[in-house]
Amino acid sequence: MPFSFLAKAKPTNNIDNLSSTVMAFCSTFCPRIPTNFRVKPISSFPSNSPFCLSFKVYSSQATDASSQDKFTGRVGFLGLGIMGSPMAQNLIKAGCDVTVWNRTKSKCDPLISLGAKHGSSPEEVAANCDVTFAMLADPESAIDVACGKNGAVSGMGPGKGYVDVSTVDVATAKLINGHIKATGALFLEAPVSGSKKPAEDGQLIFLTAGDRALYDSVASLLDILGKSRFYLGEVGNGAAMKLVVNMIMGSMMASFSEGLLLSKKVGLNPNVLVEVVSQGAISAPMYSVKGPSMVKSLYPTAFPLKHQQKDLRLALGLAESVSQSTPIAAAANELYKVAKSYGLSDEDFSAVIEALKAKSHNTA
């Protein structure tokens, strides 16, 4: 029996203060928050912060009763890479009826062993499921899996929903939305802020936009996969928010890399720099998590460098579309491009520091 999304539609209650929302995303690497604390407001700054800002950010979980309604339909999951695989696994462990697909079939096998079904194509998965999630590497892949030959669109129809959690540009999100909606199905873009560990721990942050009825219907699924979710209105807003967040993150990592190398070059201990930074006003979990490994020239992949560079490129395109100057992000993007040219694409994005090391050696 098809799962009805429209029956669960609730009044729209958008988050108006997007500047406050961005503050909630500064960390991709936050530790797991106990379930009993998830419904409480989270301050954007620690209590001992030297800044006198008093506003707070609330996740949609704090006020949305739909999170109490368990999704009972069949769930499809397309794309089982570094993010998609642990996300699908968490849905299976939570007892969901999950059907998976990936271009490389072998990546489906561990999930099948946990109880997942296998679909031979995105079309077959979408046809047999009530809601289908997609986590693809880039806009081209997202479009192909949704709209290409044997794509998900061919299996969509009234009563079904498509949730694209890939990081894409605004134009791609709107293109996929148009194709999905033309079938009578519902569409939700829901890119995530988070990397491998938050995906494994169910601690992602969802930046959603699109059909509110679908958002309300899959709320319990998003709560399995993440620690918070934000509904941002019309399609394109989710993609834009994700690109802004990752633009900031990429620039922060480039600057942090410069600081680590400079501290060492002037005779300071870079490990001490990591400790100093972690206790000051510019503290971010990203620095304390990545810093020690970076000092050892180790870059275990949580967020591939090639994806960070892709997101910076897309963010720069977004900025260009509204004539917004982004000189810092543009400079960071060039650094990530250099790192890619050194064969570091599949290393963690913190490996961008190697591009700076190379430049230093070339000018020595």
Verbal overview:
With 364 residues, the protein is α/β, with parallel strands linked by helices. It contains 15 helices and 11 strands. It has helices at 18-23, 84-93, 109-113, 122-128, 139-147, 170-182, 196-201, 212-217, 219-225, 237-265, 270-278, 285-295, 305-321, 327-341, 353-363; strands at residues 42-43, 56-57, 74-78, 97-101, 117-118, 131-134, 161-164, 186-189, 192-193, 204-210, 226-231. Strands 3, 4, 5, 6, 7, 8, 9, 10 and 11 form a 9-stranded mixed sheet that branches. A two-stranded antiparallel sheet has the order 1-2. The longest helix is centred in the C-terminal third of the chain and has 29 residues, at 237-265. The protein is elongated. It starts with 17 loop residues before the first helix and ends with a helix. Mean pLDDT is 86; it is low at 5-58.
Which features would summarize this protein structure in a list?
364 residues, alpha/beta, Rossmann fold, N-(1-d-carboxylethyl)-l-norvaline Dehydrogenase, domain 2, 2 domains, nine-stranded mixed beta sheet, two-stranded antiparallel ribbon, 15 helices, HIBADH-like_NADP-bd, Glyoxylate/succinic semialdehyde reductase 2, chloroplastic, 6-PGluconate_DH-like_C_sf
